[in-house]
Specification:
There is one protein chain. This protein is of the alpha/beta class. The chain folds into two domains: 246 residues, Aldolase class I (TIM Barrel, Alpha-Beta Barrel), CATH 3.20.20; 60 residues, no CATH class. Helices cover 37% and strands 23% of the residues. It is built from twelve helices and 15 strands. A nine-stranded mixed beta sheet has the order 7-8-6-5-4-3-2-1-9, with helices on both faces. A three-stranded antiparallel beta sheet has the order 10-11-12, with no helix packed on it. It has a three-stranded antiparallel beta sheet with strand order 13-15-14. A hairpin with a 2-residue loop joins strand 10 and strand 11.
C-alpha cells in the first residue's frame, strides 16, 4: 500500500499550475495539519492496522510541502513509522526558495530519504515567464544542500515545450541539471489546463513532437534511462517506487484536502476546500471503479512506463491487435507481458487495442 499526503499551500501560484493549492491561506496551516493528522490516524487504523497491511512508499506533495515548517511533520511521520516496510521510500516535494538547509536537514532527520525539487528551469527569464518564485541559484544551492545532508534520491523537475524553448536552450537546462548531484530527472511537456493563468494563452505552449524525441535522446546520452514517458533515472535503484505503485494499480491512501485515495476498488476524495477539510477531514466522496475501468487503466499506465502489460488482460480480439503491433515493431512481447517501445505513442497504442 502507498501513502500520499497533500499540502495545499504555496509561496506563489505558477501560471501553469492546476493543482489544489493556495497562496492566501497560510493562517490555516496549523489547523490544517491538525485535521490532516486526524484523517491520517483514521485511515491508518481502518485500512492499514485493521487489515494488517504495510506502507511501501510515502509521498508528501502539493502545493509546496516546504511551505510548512519541518517540525509540523514530526508527528505525521512518527504516526506512519510503525507501518512502514524496511527501507521504505519516503519522498517530499520541495521548492528551492523555501527548502532551506535547515528544513531539508530536519525532514531527513525525521526519515524522509528522497526529495523532489520543482526546479522547472535554470533560466531566470523562463522561471519568471512561468510564474516561478525562485531563481536558478537557489535551485542549484538546494540540490547541493540535499546531497550534503545525505538524501538517497534527488529529483529535479524540468518543463519543456514552453514558448521560446529550443533544443539548444533545453540542452542548457539539462546540462546544468546533469552537473548537479541528481539521481532522477522528470522532464514534463507543458500542459495548458483550465483554471490556470495560461489557460487562455495557447501560444505559450509549443506542440513539437520532434523536440520531445530530441530531448529524450539528449537525456539518454547523459546516462539517464527513461522508464516512463516523463521520468528518467541514473540507475534502476533511483526510479520512483511510489510512482511505480500507481502504475501497477496498487492501493493508496490519500491524505489531505484535494488528495485522492484508492482502496477496495473505490476511489475516495477528501474535500478540496481547506476550510471544509479542517471542519471535517473524515468527509469523503466515493467513486466505484469497475473491472473494465481497472483493465483500461492498467493498459494505459502499463504502456506509459517500463512495467508493460500482462498478456492475460487482453481478450482474443484485442490479442489480434497486439500481434499486429508486434509484427509492425511497435511493441515487444517478453515473459507473458507486452512492452511499449515508444512511450510517446502509449495512449494511441492503448486506444487502438481497446477500441
Amino acid at each position: 500500500m502507498l501513502l500520499y499526503i497533500h499540502i495545499p499551500f504555496c509561496d506563489s501560484k505558477c501560471f501553469y499550475c492546476a493543482f489544489n493549492s493556495y497562496t492566501d491561506k497560510f493562517h490555516l496551516k496549523l489547523e490544517y495539519m491538525k485535521a490532516l493528522k486526524k484523517q491520517l490516524k483514521n485511515e491508518l487504523d481502518n485500512y492499514v492496522l485493521k487489515h494488517n497491511k504495510e506502507i511501501e512508499t510515502v509521498f508528501i506533495g502539493g502545493g509546496t510541502p516546504s511551505c510548512v515548517k519541518a517540525q509540523e511533520y514530526e508527528e505525521v511521520l512518527n504516526m506512519i513509522k510503525p507501518y512502514l516496510i524496511k527501507d521504505a521510500e519516503i519522498t517530499t516535494e520541495a521548492n528551492p526558495n523555501s527548502a532551506s538547509y535547515e528544513w531539508l536537514e530536519t525532514m531527513h532527520k525525521y526519515g524522509v530519504n528522497r526529495v523532489s525539487f520543482g526546479v522547472q528551469s535554470f533560466n531566470n527569464d523562463k522561471l519568471k515567464f512561468l510564474g516561478r518564485s525562485h531563481k536558478s541559484k537557489s535551485a542549484i544551492n538546494a540540490i547541493q544542500n540535499a546531497k550534503s545532508i545525505g538524501f538517497n534520491g534527488i529529483n529535479c523537475d524540468i518543463i519543456y515545450g514552453v514558448q521560446g524553448d529550443t533544443l539548444e536552450s533545453m540542452k542548457e537546462d539539462f546540462k546544468q541539471a546533469f552537473s548537479l548531484p541528481i539521481t532522477h530527472l522528470s522532464a514534463y511537456s507543458l500542459m495548458i489546463e483550465e483554471g490556470t493563468k495560461f489557460f487562455d494563452r495557447s501560444s505559450v505552449k509549443i506542440d513539437d513532437e520532434e523536440l520531445s524525441y530530441e530531448i529524450f535522446d539528449f537525456i539518454k546520452e547523459h546516462n539517464f534511462t527513461q522508464y516512463e514517458i516523463s521520468n528518467f533515472a541514473r540507475e534502476k535503484k533511483y526510479e520512483s517506487k511510489h510512482n511505480y505503485g500507481y502504475w501497477e494499480h496498487k492501493e493508496y491512501l490519500g491524505i489531505g484536502a484535494g488528495a485522492v485515495g484508492y482502496v477496495n476498488k473505490r476511489r475516495y476524495y477528501p474535500s478540496k476546500s481547506i476550510e471544509e477539510y479542517i471542519e471535517n477531514p473524515l468527509k469523503m466522496d466515493y467513486e466505484a471503479i469497475d473491472l473494465e475501468d481497472i483493465k483500461t487503466e492498467k493498459i494505459l499506465l502499463g504502456f506509459r512506463c517500463s512495467n508493460g502489460v500482462a498478456l492475460s488482460l487482453f481478450t482474443q480480439k484485442e490479442l489480434e491487435k497486439v500481434n499486429h503491433l508486434i509484427e509492425n515493431d511497435k511493441v515487444l512481447q517478453k515473459n507473458q507481458r507486452i512492452y511499449n517501445k515508444n512511450f510517446l505513442l502509449s495512449d494511441e497504442l492503448a486506444l487502438y487495442i481497446l477500441e
